[in-house]
Design a protein that fits this description.
alpha/beta; 3-stranded antiparallel sheet
């Protein structure tokens, strides 16, 4: 049986139309986009076209799109770039942020800022009462992800942004895990900045973007030739940027169809998991349609992942960048989940190529592995 991939929140395969768009710029069209000759002009036009494609996906004007090497750089560009402009005060981030938001925020706390982590409910939604309490203190920056990378829970970003703006704070959202799964509209979310990544939407790794409200000023992380409106110096990665644009166009064209199909498949897998006794984290909240985060009491998550891998199914423990960390998920602990349950967490994230047959085969494998592991546990007692 062929390997079945259920880890699309970690990364997605490169879509064929995206590869087709990139290939000319990996072969013949190798010009530097800053050059004034024909090859350079072709590269610049390709970047401009990609900027328009990404802008259209999130409802902004092309000049608001600042291309970066990925989501991590974009998050750091906003947090560190804003901190260079603003006077030190409070930075408020949710307790369930990805490390590439949490860690630069912690770095600011060592440079005169006060870090406030916003609490979440049992279902993994940012607690609006805690937002209100936090904003009683003068605040310069607020950052809350659009959808959580582990649970898939969608956050009330627009509601938080309204409060942040009223408190004169700059509002940022990491929309990496929401893009391509639900509609993401920069204007509707009312934020000052938004982070995107190509490789989560069937584009290439090494391309991301920070969407910026042009009424705010950020300090660049990199000093150099002034590329990307002076916010991201360095020769542009033209093939990756072109791929990002093509992936954005593809995402826009199939968003509704893909979301509806993913939601049906997730319901199918969660029905099966629940019948086996699994707990589904965040099930009481709105979630992106492809993601399910679950655990079986008394079953170690890493062991379950390894056994499923042996049977040809790829799932994850949570955030891909934290897979080497043996500690329970910080997201689940913030939700009030007991550590012994959190250690069993497994993330299942669907993609465009997955089918109902894949899901049914996965459920058969899970049932088999869980039964075997429970028997081993019982024998050891």
């Amino acid at each position: 049986m062929a390997f079945v991939y259920f880890d699309h929140n970690a990364t997605t395969p490169l879509a064929e139309p995206v590869l087709d768009a990139m290939l000319p710029f990996l072969r013949d069209q190798y010009g530097n986009a800053s050059s004034r000759h024909d090859l350079g002009i072709t590269a610049r036009r390709a970047i401009d076209n990609a900027r328009e494609q990404v802008a259209a996906l999130v409802n902004v004007r092309p000049p608001q799109v600042v291309f970066t090497s990925g989501g991590t750089e974009a998050n750091n560009l906003f947090i560190k770039g804003a901190a260079e402009i603003l006077k030190p005060s409070q930075i408020a981030v949710s307790a369930i942020e990805h490390p590439c938001v949490a860690k630069p925020s912690e770095a600011l706390a060592r440079k005169g800022w006060t870090l406030r982590k916003l609490a979440v409910t049992r279902d993994g939604v940012v607690d609006m009462n805690d937002v209100d309490a936090a904003l009683q203190t003068p605040t310069g920056i607020v950052s809350v992800m659009t959808a959580n990378n582990e649970t898939g829970v969608i956050q009330p970003v627009a509601e938080i942004a309204e409060r942040a703006r009223a408190a004169k704070a700059w509002m940022h959202t990491d929309a990496v895990q929401a893009l391509g799964k639900i509609a993401v509209d920069f204007e509707a979310l009312n934020v000052h900045a938004m982070t995107l990544s190509a490789h989560k939407i069937y584009g290439p790794k090494g391309a991301g973007a920070l969407i910026v409200d042009k009424r705010i000023e950020l300090a660049p992380l990199l000093a150099g030739g002034g590329h990307e409106h002076g916010l991201r110096s360095g020769t542009e990665n033209v093939p990756a940027i072109v791929g990002f644009g093509a992936a954005a166009e593809l995402a826009a064209s199939r968003l509704d169809e893909l979301a509806a199909r993913m939601e049906k498949l997730r319901a199918r897998v969660e029905q099966g998991l629940t019948q086996m006794g699994a707990v589904i984290f965040g099930a009481g909240a709105a979630r992106v349609p492809n993601t399910s985060y679950f655990a079986f009491k008394g079953i170690d998550g890493e062991t379950l992942i390894i056994e499923l891998d042996k049977l040809g199914f790829g799932v994850a423990a949570g955030a891909a960048c934290s897979s080497a960390n043996p500690e329970p998920s910080a997201t689940l602990l913030a939700m009030g989940i007991a550590p012994e349950i959190a250690r069993g967490a497994v993330r299942f994230s669907l993609g465009a190529a997955n089918t109902a047959q894949n899901v049914d085969e996965f459920l058969v494998a899970v049932k088999q592995v869980v039964a075997r592991l429970k028997n081993l546990t019982a024998m050891a007692v």
